[in-house]
Amino acid sequence: MHSESKTLPKLIVLLGPTTCGKTEWSLRLAKKINGEIISADSRQIYKNMSIGTAKILGVWEWNGLRRTYVVDGIFHHLIDFLNPGKTFTVAEFRDRTIKHVKLIIKNKRIPIIAGGTGMYISSVVDNWHIPQIGANKKLRQSLEEKSCEELTDLLGKMDQDIIKTIDQKNKRRLIRALEVCIMSGEPFSKQRKKGEPIFSILQIGIDTDKELLDARINDRIDNMIQNGLVDEISKLLKQKYSWNLPSMSGIGYKQFKGYFKNEYGLEKAIELLKRDTRHLARKQLTWFRRDQRIKWCKTYDEAEKMVDEFLAK
């Protein structure tokens, strides 16, 4: 395995929980090593959803025959490209990322995946083979009528293993897992088969103190409100994007549903967003801590040194 990894193309992954500083570190690193960044953030993929997803502001520029999102001179991929009415699967992320990585390497640059969506990152690091099972509208509609408890029971009968890891309060995930089980005739948990490694990968995690993370989450959300998050959501609703969409049922948006329906005030919505973002950070850390290959760094300099050594091999 080790001898093989020397000949495999190199890929750097920078990961960690929300607000830990991935954006800043990835930009510094990309400038130093002539890198391009592939975003692994399941919320920042959407257009017109910049404030609630804490998306770094860039400009779309023509780069040869394709348009690319550019931040501070650095090319970014898989960010700000999808209509909020559309869905984007882990399988699509994996396939597109692999293409981007290969193209970046071909252009004599270093690919850096940066983000906090664990499933996205694992799908590339472990080269998951995920069957492309499309959405089945009729099936989804019939499942939509059931409660999360009923969906969990149903899924448990088809796939015992997935019940241990799936978020049982996330209706969309439960429906998707059931859809895959029913359409493929196989348990959802068996669908993600690990493939042979295609890249030599260095995974760096940003190690941030819990209190600091919580303080940053509060600051970030206060800034989002000042920067016009409520207005951003209002515009999306005017464009007839429904609360059931994956984009609108994500953190940063769904917490305001009750506010827009006059069920509670703005203070309550902000409080919910802060709480749910803290929960998200814990969940992300739980996912990443399972992977022993991740090297955790407290400072940027530590990470940069590790990258230099990895690239010099």
TrEMBL record:
Pfam families: IPPT. It comes from the Bacteria. Residues 41-44 are annotated as: Interaction with substrate tRNA. Catalyzes the transfer of a dimethylallyl group onto the adenine at position 37 in tRNAs that read codons beginning with uridine, leading to the formation of N6-(dimethylallyl)adenosine (i(6)A). InterPro entries: Dimethylallyltransferase, IPT, P-loop_NTPase. Substrate binds at T18, T19, C20, G21, K22, T23. Its EC number is 2.5.1.75. One of its GO terms (biological process) is tRNA modification. This is tRNA dimethylallyltransferase. It catalyses: adenosine(37) in tRNA + dimethylallyl diphosphate = N(6)-dimethylallyladenosine(37) in tRNA + diphosphate. HAMAP family: IPP_trans. One of its GO terms (molecular function) is ATP binding. Keywords: ATP-binding, Magnesium, Nucleotide-binding, Transferase, tRNA processing. It comes from Candidatus Magasanikbacteria bacterium CG_4_10_14_0_2_um_filter_37_12. The record marks T117, R140 as: Interaction with substrate tRNA. The keyword Transferase applies. Its cofactor is Mg(2+). Monomer. Belongs to the IPP transferase family.
